[in-house]
User: Which sequence fits this backbone?
């Protein structure tokens, strides 16, 4: 393992533009379950609850499910993996994080250039008039007895700001994600099963443009065969060790 850590650190140091793609696995050490890992949500819950069709047909059941996840995410704190990436950015060795997560933990850890391709849970949006409100405001509407919550302006149904299955990815986020993937010379996929598109396509774009590609994940993924390095293990342990090595190579002192 220490050989791989050293190789990853060397690649980071010698790259001009490092981009990271993260998935639910980077947040499991913060107590938020992933979908497809061994303790994943889809082992307990039918994945159809995450589709836009389910939301439209059963908004009350959808919101009950989302409220549980919201509570979990609002109290969650970033873990060592999130902090390690924020530190790399501060050192000028990480250009962007493209995340599939909706938990805001990269921002909470201090990362600045974060592209949330699956939206976030900080907001809710009316599916009729398109008005966007804060999630706190949506929770207030629920507290006032309107369930599932409705828009104060037009009475339309409110939906959380996360992107559901079969919903389009927000265009601006997707354009930025494609651009970063084309421009990077090193991409690292961390804590993602690389099974959800278009996220799983981003490393393919990067590779085609000549970038190196590293995977850090607990389990094998369908893209392992195109990766230059694959490390299986916990993102928190691995990234902490990688950042220490990067600092050593750059001659940066302290934490
Ligand atoms: P996924 O559940 O499909 O895969 C997560 C991967 O991370 C698994 O392969 C698992 O083995 C690995 N993993 C688990 N813990 C790890 C750890 N500590 N270190 C390293 N690897 C670890 O998740 P995905 O690829 O992000 O799937 C995409 C969907 O999951 C997205 O739509 C995303 O919006 C959604 N999601 C987000 C959150 C969140 O915001 N935290 C939580 C659950 C699901």
Assistant:
């Amino acid at each position: 393992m220490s050989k791989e850590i050293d190789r990853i650190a060397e690649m980071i140091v010698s790259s001009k533009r490092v981009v990271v793609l993260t998935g639910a696995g980077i947040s499991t050490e913060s107590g938020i379950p992933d979908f497809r890992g061994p303790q994943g949500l889809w082992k307990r819950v039918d994945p159809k609850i995450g589709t836009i069709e389910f939301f439209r047909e059963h908004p009350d059941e959808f919101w009950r499910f989302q409220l549980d996840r919201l509570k979990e995410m609002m109290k969650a704190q970033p873990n060592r993996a999130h902090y390690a990436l924020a530190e790399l950015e501060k050192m000028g060795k990480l250009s962007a994080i493209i995340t599939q997560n909706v938990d805001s933990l990269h921002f909470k850890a201090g990362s600045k250039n974060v592209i949330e391709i699956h939206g976030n849970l900080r907001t809710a949006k009316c599916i009729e008039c398109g008005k966007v409100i804060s999630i706190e405001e949506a929770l207030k509407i629920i507290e006032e007895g309107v369930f599932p919550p409705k828009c104060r302006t037009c009475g339309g149904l409110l939906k959380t700001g996360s992107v559901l299955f079969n919903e389009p990815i927000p265009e601006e986020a997707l354009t930025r994600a494609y651009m970063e993937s084309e421009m990077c010379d090193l991409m690292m996929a961390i804590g993602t099963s690389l099974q959800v598109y278009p996220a799983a396509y981003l490393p393919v774009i990067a590779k085609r443009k000549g970038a190196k590609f590293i995977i850090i994940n607990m389990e094998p993924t369908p893209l392992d065969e195109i990766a230059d390095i694959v490390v299986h293990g916990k993102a928190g342990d691995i990234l902490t060790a990688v950042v220490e090595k990067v600092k050593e190579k750059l001659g940066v002192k302290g934490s």
In short: The beta strands are 18-22, 96-99, 114-116, 119-126, 132-134, 158-162, 186-190, 212-217, 229-232. The first strand starts at residue 18 and ends at 22. Residues 87 and 237 are 15 Å apart (CA to CA). The first helix runs from residue 2 to 14.
